[in-house]
Specification:
Layout (H helix, E strand, L loop, with lengths): L2 H8 L2 E7 L6 H11 L5 E8 L2 H39 L6 H5 L9 H10 L4 H4 L6 H9 L2 H6 L4 E8 L5 E4 L6 H7 L9 E3 L2 E5 L9 H6 L4 E5 L13 H32 L12 E5 L18 H22 L9 H7 L4
Parallel strand pairs: 1-2, 1-7, 2-3, 7-8
Antiparallel strand pairs: 3-4, 3-6, 5-6
């Protein structure tokens, strides 16, 4: 009996996860995963992520390897708790006490971020931090079991990064999983020096793969992919202030690569459904989307640098609630040929 037949007999639903980056906003995806991992019939074969999505993906795969779904929940919680505690001690991106009390989680009124933003207008990371010291890298080195992930064949990880010299996408998979690859996926070029991996230099993957879907299609058996989207696709009003224009510009940039990939998947899916593509080797992928733009209402992109624990917990709970509602509405469609959900998903992108 094949593994797929065994999965069906046991009622196991095999899925892959794709998670967008977004700094502290990645705590929403943490909440989504925390709820999904409570479903014991969901088997997480692969995870693709960029930046914060890459950290979530690494926590998911590391945790699943060592302790199944419960282990992944614990690993995700430990990652976000540890990062918040570290940032509280050393990060200049802190809320001012009044905003924290009023639960205003944007950083546009906090002195530390204001100073850093001003300095960033004139100084690059190579000038502000010539030794390239980054305690976050030390934290990652101690947190993940890199060898276990490199050696594991059942659960696959894919981290997206941008190759600085060519502008091309780079995907780091299990056999390349290392602290440098994680740093490359999350390397914001105005905050950090370019991350060096095997003699090549990389920036944050969000500029070109946020996240990359195709590695999950080509390298995983699962035909169901759950996409957790953080960056809004549509805006209801034309931005008119400098800050709002900048935010919208970044949203379009961070979503552009995902929109193009989803359009390509939609085209292939429609050709399969219409009988134009009959090659059985071409898999029909079922794409599921979990997003909640209301959870980010009132937040601008400065909040993506806010690692205040109360803020992270708020986003986590929003993610859990969103995932719970999604499971009630759509879980039965995982692993089936109910394609109506695909049209609902693709309508966000095409």
């Amino acid at each position: 009996m094949t593994e797929n037949n065994q999965d069906k007999k046991k009622g196991i639903k095999k899925v892959s996860i794709a998670m967008q980056g977004g700094g502290a906003h990645g705590a929403f995806a943490w909440g989504v995963m925390d709820r999904l991992l409570e479903e014991n019939d969901l088997y997480f074969e692969g995870a693709s992520g960029t930046s914060a999505g890459g950290m979530n993906a690494a926590s998911l795969i590391d945790g699943v390897i060592h302790g199944g779904n419960a282990g992944a929940r614990a690993k995700l919680n430990d990652y976000w708790r540890g990062m918040a505690e570290m940032a509280k001690k050393i990060s200049p991106y802190q809320l001012n006490p009044i905003d924290k009390y009023n639960k205003y989680y944007n950083l546009d009124r906090s002195p530390g971020p204001m100073i850093m933003n001003f300095l960033g207008l004139f100084l690059s990371p190579y000038q502000m931090n010539p030794t390239n010291y980054n305690p976050f890298e030390d934290y990652l080195r101690d947190f993940f079991d890199f060898q276990a992930i490199r050696e594991n064949k059942e659960h696959k990880i894919f981290l997206g990064a941008t190759h600085v010299k060519t502008g091309r996408i780079k995907i780091f998979s299990n056999d390349q999983f290392c602290p440098d690859a994680l740093m490359a996926s999350a390397c914001l070029p105005f905050l950090y020096q370019a991350a060096k991996v095997d003699g090549e230099y990389y920036w944050d993957g969000g500029y070109i793969a946020n996240p990359a879907i195709y590695p999950l299609i080509y390298n995983c058996e699962a035909t169901d992919i759950i996409l957790i989207q953080l960056t809004r696709t549509h805006c209801s009003e034309i931005p008119t202030t400098h800050a709002a224009i900048q935010d919208r510009y970044k949203e379009i940039t961070y979503n552009n690569c995902l929109v193009r990939e989803m359009r390509a998947i939609h085209m292939i899916t429609k050709m399969i459904d219409d009988g134009i593509i009959k090659d059985p080797s071409v898999k029909r992928m079922n794409i599921h989307l979990i997003k909640n733009e209301d959870a980010f209402r009132g937040l601008n992109l400065t909040s993506a640098l806010n690692t205040d624990w109360d803020f992270l917990q708020m986003l986590k709970e929003a993610g859990r609630s969103t995932a719970d509602n999604w499971l009630k509405a759509h879980k039965e469609k995982i692993g089936t040929k109910q394609h109506s959900l695909d049209e609902e998903v693709f309508s966000n992108f095409v």
